[in-house]
Amino acid sequence: KLNYWTPVDWYNGGMEHTTLHLLYSRFWHKFLFDLKLVPTSEPYMKRTSHGLILAEGGVKMSKSKGNVINPDGIVKNYGADTLRIYEMFMGPFDQHVAWSTESMIGPRRFLEKVWRLQEKLVENSSSKTPNPKIQTSLHQTIKKVSEDIEAMKFNTAISSMMMFVNLLDAESEIEKKVFETFLVLLAPFAP
Predict the structure, then answer these.
(1) Dist CA 159 CA 181 (whole Å)
(2) Which candidate, 70, 71, 45, 53, places its Cα nearest to that of 14?
(3) In a 3-state reduction of DSSP, which class is residue 94?
(4) Which residue from 31, 44, 154, 172 has the fewest beta carbons nearer than 10 Å?
(5) Is 47 exposed, middle or buried (0-12, 13-18, 19+ CB in 10 A)?
(6) What is the DSSP-derived secondary structure letter of residue 23?
(7) Environment class of residue 9 by beta-carbon count within 10 Å: exposed (0-12), middle (13-18) or buried (19+)?
(8) Is the dihedral of CA 162, 81, 8, 25 positive or negative?
(9) What is residue 89's predicted lDDT score, i.e. its pLDDT?
(10) How far, in Å, CA of 129 to CA of 136, rounded?
(11) 143 Cβ partners below 8 Å, 6+ apart?
């Protein structure tokens, strides 16, 4: 089973717990490897750390300070997809970022714009050939989002989808297949 499950492809942990994470995962694994009890010298092939989400004003969230954000209220007011988009859009994955409930409006408007695009859907474009500008932009967006997901650059992936949606919004009609492809691209962020 160890040969099958190790090494782990990607280990992601929090910056606050780096010392203990490394002690528990890496140090002990190396110790066990020296005893020939595990098949690999490293427990994982790649390790990343995520940044902290700070409270409004940039201070550390703490129950004792009473500045923790309860997601239930956010989901009730804006929806779970908006919360997910906001968390991934608020900044680089590995950096500390301050929470801002006011900034929740941008991701909410983005999702509302995506929803409204369905009013412009057509089976096939009225012209004989699909709009090359839309097709090119769609493929560029697919490439960018795919690469950004792998690199955990979720904020720039969402930004590129926002730009594509703005391009679609300027069109009088949108081919259903283009919209469906975009929704598949959006689904990991807002299912």
Answers:
(1) 17
(2) 53
(3) coil
(4) 172
(5) middle
(6) I
(7) exposed
(8) positive
(9) 96
(10) 13
(11) none
Rg (CA), the chain: 21
Place of tokens 């962020």: 189
pLDDT number for residue 2? 86
Give helix then strand counts, H and E, for the chain.
9, 6
Whole-angstrom distance, CA of residue 75 vs CA of residue 171 = 31
**Block mean pLDDT (10 aa), the chain, length 191:** 88 78 85 94 88 86 87 94 96 91 95 97 72 94 97 96 97 94 97 94
Q: Please tell me the pTM assigned to this model.
A: 0.83
The pair of structure tokens assigned to 169 is 């919004």
Cβ distance 87 to 189 under 8 Å?
no
Residue tagged 């412009």 (tokens): 120
The residue to which tokens 């140090």 are assigned:
27
